[in-house]
Amino acid sequence: MSRLTTLHLVLVALGVATILSLVSSPAPDGLERTAEKLGFTTYGTHLPVPLAPFADYVVAGVPQTLATPLAGFMGVCAVCAVLYGAGVLLSRVRRS
Fold first, then answer.
1. Ordered alpha helix ranges (H), 1-96
2. CA nearest 73: which of 25, 20, 24, 18?
3. For the chain, which residues make up each domain, given as ranges?
């Protein structure tokens, strides 16, 4: 896959995550709904979760109308960065 194609795919993913999050449903997602149905939504709520920077798909300190799109944008950037790093590491291993 060419670098230009990869860039286009990343831009599409960023656009989808940012723009479609503006019309996302405020209803609970499937995992949260199942937790509510089975009665364990409060388990672990007293524990700090330092590795959840976008809890409930929002960015703290940002107005709600911008927080969800920003969380989507930043999430796609984080996934792309991890995949890029994995690709670099795997290509180095493959060469040697």
1. 3-19, 30-38, 64-95
2. 18
3. 3-95
